[in-house]
Amino acid sequence: MIDGREVIVIRSAKRKRTISADLVGGTLRLRVPLRMGKGHLEEHARAFQQKLRKKAAGRERSDEALMQRALELSKKHFDDAVRPVSVRWSDRQNTRWGSTTSSQGTIRLSSRLKEMPGWVQDGVLVHELAHLIEPGHGPAFRRLVERYPHTKESDAFLEGVSFAQRQMGQV
């Protein structure tokens, strides 16, 4: 624990000077040289935590930005034929990545997507936009969704996340 946050430290005899970090389920994972002292370790952990927080904050979209992105995707993939009334983040969506109320033209995306790459968020947005045209999941719907070139990758990414969460008992 560093500053009240869990940090996983992986020491390696092969590393002499380099340090790398990533986030795993919200936990900072540091790869450091075997002989790095505690003081240097804490210093690097704080620096990486700050850097990753800034990076995540820059990635995060507001509801307004999410609506703007939905309109951009509609223009690009649906010839501007889809105009949702609202698009917003939802903290209440814990089992679905997104939902659409086609009769009202509203789209909600799970706030869990905020931590994921933009192309995955876009995949869910395109899926929900397609529901404004085609409510079911039949062949016509699939053709609409496949207009987004990263649909298969986005679906695979989300299936992997869902699988991992089920294994950890989070969903």
Automatic annotation (TrEMBL):
Keyword terms of this UniProt record: Hydrolase
* rRNA-binding is among the record's keywords: no
Extract the InterPro entries matched here. Answer: UTP_pyrophosphatase-like, YgjP-like_metallopeptidase
- YgjP-like metallopeptidase domain span: 59-156
Question: What terms describe the molecular function in GO for this protein?
Answer: hydrolase activity
Gene3D superfamilies, sorted: Metalloproteases ('zincins'), catalytic domain
Q: Looking at the keywords, is Hydrolase present? A: yes
Q: What is this protein called?
A: Metal-dependent hydrolase
User: From which source organism is this entry?
Assistant: Nesterenkonia cremea
